User: Fold Helix-turn-helix transcriptional regulator from Streptomyces prunicolor.
Amino acid sequence: MAGHATDEHPHGADRLCDAGDRVYSRAVRRGRVPRTDAEPVPCLLELALLHPDPDDMAWLVPTAPQEVMTRLLRGVYDEVGESHRRVGSAVAAFERYAGLGRRIQASAMASASLEGGAAIRVLDGLSRIQAAMDDATEACTGEVLTVQPGGIRREPELTEGLHRALALRSRGVRMRDLYTHVARHGQGLLNYLELMGDAVEARTLDEVVDRLILFDRTVAFIPANADHTMALELRHPALIDYFVTVFDRLWRLAIPVAAALPDTGIEGISHREQSIAALLADGHQDAVIAERLGISVRTCRAHIARLSETLGAASRTQLGVRIAQVGLDGAAARLPDVPVQLTPVDRESPTAR
Assistant:
């Protein structure tokens, strides 16, 4: 105990207080000291640096400095040994947890390592995206499903992947493409479909999900950021099944490009204006509507203006009411029959935009 502090005296024999050092030093020089000298420094007795003289209990004799040093060294040795044991225990625990981590990682890699590569792979940059698409095209033998959002497809967009489409057609691969209705008005798409012949079947909807490309129902590509400079390559069966289900349901709702769009049933309102009316009824702003339908904001607002004029609405609030009254919000079955006179709005009234 000579090397350790006590509750009453927070120091050990290795760092005596000044008073204790003076009394102990005097006891070593003289061989003993009166018990009264040690009363102000009880730490000397508690640390066993002084102990009663067997011949006269009124005196205290010192423990030899060599013995004190031995005790100190033994205490240090014990502390070092305990530290070594703690370090060894920590190392053993580290190795155990590291081993568990390696097994978990190996298991995750095994489950992710499906046929054709990792379950999810991030493609950073257009060159890596195009290279991965070329590899998937080369491996494809049966079917390609694509969803192409946006409006009229520009020639550069169509020619960018034309070499892949031609390579697929040469191997007898069938392709099904989904576009927005707006894409029908682009000559580039019509030229592309004519070039591809019966290898490609295209349909359109008012709006579609973001870009999706599926090869042989085994690998899918979707955007990973807003500007489409990053993409995800997905091979997980559950994700692929989900995307195929989404595509098939959209496909059943879509209209073949070769077929005309159905009449809205309301004179003076086009199919596109009907789509805009439904989105307006849901509370969407002009910019959101334009993006979802693949048109510019300026074009969207022009359609809204014509819609307001046709329905005789002088404000955006009144336009919402008229849309609901004629059933353009998709809720006609829930509304009472209200006769609506579709007359042009007063020219002096502000047009809703």
